[in-house]
Structure formats: C-alpha cells, structure tokens
Amino acid sequence: MRIHNVGICDKDAGYAVNVTEYLNTEKELHLNVSAFTKMQAVEDYLKHKELDVLLTDDTSGCTESEGMKFFKDVRCVPLLEYRGEEPDGIFKYQDIRTISRELFGKLAPFTENPSKISSCLCVFSPLGRCGKTNFAKALAASDEVRGGLYVGMEDYSGLSVETEASGILYQIKQRMSDIEEILADRIHTFDHIKMLQAAGTYFDMREISKDDIEWLNEILYQSGICTTIVYDLGCSAMEDYEILSCFEQIYMPVLPDEISRNKIQRFERMMRDMGYRGILSKIVKVGVPEADYDSPEMIRAIWKVKHGGD
After folding, report:
1. How far is 182 from 177, CA to CA, in rounded Å?
2. Considering the domain 4-110, what is its CATH architecture?
C-alpha cells in the first residue's frame, strides 16, 4: 500500500509536532508526516521532496483552482481556528482521530477506490538494466481477477523477433472503429501472460499523446479482457511527460550505485521544474531483484510493493 506524504505547517510548533507524532505513530494510516512552522520551510522542503497534501494555518501564499488551494502545486487544506470558517478546511481543535478521518477525505484523489476493480499501472525508469520489463510482466501476472495485460512501449522491444506482434500505434492515432477486433488479433499470450506490443522501437512512440493512451485504456476496459493494464514505458518515448498522468501508479525501478541515484535526482528535479509534482507523487521506487518475472524472488517483490511489506 502506498505511503502518503503529508505536511503540517502551523505557527504553534507544539500543535504541529503533536499532530505529526500521532499520525506517524499510527502505522495503519500509512502516512509519512512532516511538521513545519513556516511556509518558507515548506518551500525549501519541496525543492527536494514531495508532499501529497499540506495542512496549514497560513494560506496567504496559496493559489486557488476549482475551489481548492495549492502551494507550489501541492494541495493545501486550511487549519481553522473556528469551525466552518472555510468549507475546505479542517478545524484544528477537535479529536485527533476526527482530524485523521477528515485528512483521509482530502487524500481521496490519491487513494485507490476499493470498488474499482480495474487499474492502469506503469513501470518506468530513467535507468537502464534495472529489471523494468521483468517487473512489468510480474505485475501483469499478479492479477488474479480477469488477469493482467502487459503493454510494451519500450525504447526497443524486448520480445523476440519470432514472437513480436505488429504495433498498433497507427490504429490508435486514427481512432479506428474496428480497434476491438484489431486488439483481439494483436493480443497474444506468451509465458502465460497476455501481451500487447504497442511499439517496437522508440521511433514509433514519438507522436503518441496522453489522449491516445486514455483512449486505448478505455477500449481495453470495455473489452473486459483484463482488470489490470501494465505499461512498460521507455524513456525515449517521453516526448510528452503528460503521458505519465494516465497511470494510477508509476513503479520506478532504481539501482543503489551513485551514478544511478544522480540520474534519478536529475529526473525528479526536471519534473519539479516542469510543474509535474502530481506525477512525482504517483511514483513508487522499487528495487527489482535480478530474477525472472515468475520467480519466487519477483513474486515477493510484487507482494511488498502492493502491501507495504518489509
């Protein structure tokens, strides 16, 4: 289960620290909470780290959009001195359990809807040789409802030339009316996994857009062929980083060496500079074992990222 990053900024340092300590102590909440007393400290924090939601008694530096407040693209929830001052706020001086329940209501956009059985995931990393494709295949294989579908959109397809099917990017761009029949013909089962090779090389992906991915997902959901779609996405395909906003969760394989850490940090800095904090908040970094997708080691790794195990 994903850990949500929450900030609490209040001029009353004792209040901020007490609420933070309580929320961090309740492990079943799956929250990582940080305390601040000034918004400048929050701004400095956001230069290097991410928050999903910020609770604060100082909204003077926030912008407004669709009835909600934002600070540096982070959702802001006012901490109120008096009940009912603002409809989107949380009253400070109430039972801490009530505060935590109201906080989870604000986290709803980041929390999986338990009634929604279909999900769209992505495995993406600026690193090479990090186990990305094996991890994506293992994610697809882990769906035990109607099965998962692996969608290959790598820089260069890892499937063998003998088994690789034709791509479907032209059909997607043209919004072809018979796309369901085309998909039925192009989706094949290899190693007990349903696979759709959408692109063979990164040249195929340069024109693909967020709208194209959303359209394809809707067709796949309607077909009922799967309950989980897992995209194996290559870096060179990223002409438009808005594509990453199509996915509910982005799993990013990482490596422990210094060069790899530097690459990840530069990627994150670029995304912050481009205003994509919302996308960064969906990323879950994973260490992928050097193992086949159906190995016990990989199955354990998938279980850990899904359930928050150690």
Report:
1. 10
2. 3-Layer(aba) Sandwich (3.40)
